[in-house]
Amino acid sequence: MSAEANKPSKNRLFFALWPDEAVIEAVERMRGELGLDQGRPVPQENLHITLLFLGDVPDETLDDLKALADRLALASCEIVLDRLEHWVRPAVLCLTASEVPEPVAELVNQLKRGVRKLGFKPEKRPFRPHLTLARKVRRRVGERQIEPVRWPVRDFVLVKSDRDDQGSRYTILGRWPRSREAVP
């Protein structure tokens, strides 16, 4: 038996906010108005905001990650993507939010604390909400304000990422709705 056969199976995972149809339509409308024609556009089905990237995760950890998500709360809020930015180092064009809604910031902090207890080493950089529009953008694009894309946050998801010659394919492994508000 080879050493490869003895290696535990792993999945490339991340927690994210996943857009509904209205958000996708707003992003596509804005993308068309800006006339963005460079780089490799991110397909509609891959649009998202990463909350916490986990990397390669052993299969046996998946249930622990889902149990963690079951315990977390997400209050009602809205992310406003109001800037277009070109990040030279990763060569991506992104929509970014000038402000991080407190419920989203708290969810990210809860995720980081939770995965740390599971043995992960989450990224230390502060969370910065962004939606990648295009990859491999080599020609400089100036940062600018745009017509805001309003994203009502209704849930968060755990996503598996598979790569091939065509890019990344994402599969949602679990979805957790925001907390229900108390009804008077």
Mean pLDDT: 88
Specify the CATH architecture.
Answer: Alpha-Beta Complex
Total separate domains:
1
What CATH calls the topology is Cyclic Phosphodiesterase, Chain: A
Distance between the termini: 63 Å
The overall strand count is 9
How many helical elements?
A: 4
Relative strand content: 35-45%
**Order of neighbouring strands in the sheet with most strands:** 2-6-5-4-7
Write out the CATH superfamily name: Cyclic phosphodiesterase
Question: Regarding CATH, which class?
Answer: Alpha Beta
- The coarse silhouette is globular
Task: Please provide the ordered H/E string of secondary-structure elements.
Answer: HEHEEHEEHEEEE
Low-confidence stretches: none
Give the biggest beta sheet. Answer: 5 strands, antiparallel
Structural class: alpha+beta
Q: Please give the share of residues in helix.
A: 10-25%
Radius of gyration from CA coordinates = 17 Å
Q: Can you tell me about this structure?
A:
This protein has 184 residues and is α+β, with helices and mostly antiparallel strands. The protein has one domain: Cyclic Phosphodiesterase, Chain: A (Alpha-Beta Complex). 24% of the residues lie in helices and 40% in strands. It has a five-stranded antiparallel beta sheet with strand order 2-6-5-4-7. Strands 3-1-8-9 form a four-stranded antiparallel beta sheet. Strand 8 (155-164) and strand 9 (167-177) form a beta hairpin. The longest helix has 16 residues, at 102-117. It is globular. The relative contact order is 0.26.
